[in-house]
Amino acid sequence: MQHHVTDRGINGAIKWSYHDAAVFAAWTVTRAGAEWTLAGTLKSSDDFRVSQRPLKFVAPHADGVWTWPVEELQITGASLTAKLGPPVR
Question: pLDDT tens, 19-46?
């Protein structure tokens, strides 16, 4: 049995170290089995910073932040899609 989980938000960022590489207007993280994916609309992005590694996706919530490592990403216009690793606790 595959588990599907979807989380959505309006605040979130792709970080390189402590720098914002990309800032989201809205995002969705989906888990299907062991695969985690991110899709979102960007407020802003920095070409240099999004090309650096390692990157992480950080999304605030009521009790702190959720964090996922970014394994691959693609930006087309104001849209970003990414393959994420399992969340970091």
Answer: 999 999 999 999 999 999 999 999 999 9
